[in-house]
Amino acid sequence: MVLAAEFAWLVTRGSWRASDAAFRLLPGALMLLATRGALTGASWPWIALPLLASFPVHLLDLRRR
Fold first, then answer.
1. Which residues contact 16 (CB under 8 A, 6 or more apart)?
2. What pTM was computed for the model?
3. 31-63 core/surface letters (b: 16 or more CB in 10 A; e: else)
4. With 0-12 CB in 10 A as exposed, 13-18 as middle and 19+ as buried, what is 25?
5. For a tag on the chain, would you pick the N or C end, based on fewer CB atoms within 10 A?
6. Residue 62: C-alpha distances to residues 18, 40, 53 (Å)
7. What letter would DSSP give residue 41?
8. Where is 43: in which H helix or E strand?
């Protein structure tokens, strides 16, 4: 919910393009998903997959900048 509010704020008030805001927030959202899995006792693939996916998205964001 907080990430959705931050996305909306960045796009409307921060005058960012939606794609820029999404690429900047997506790695953090994936890491939060992995953290939630770890805290709720999910099996290791459900923790590793979002963490693994966050890295290439982060690299794409850095390349776009």
1. 10
2. 0.84
3. bebbeebeeeeeeeeebeebbebbeebbeebee
4. middle
5. N
6. 16, 31, 15
7. T
8. none
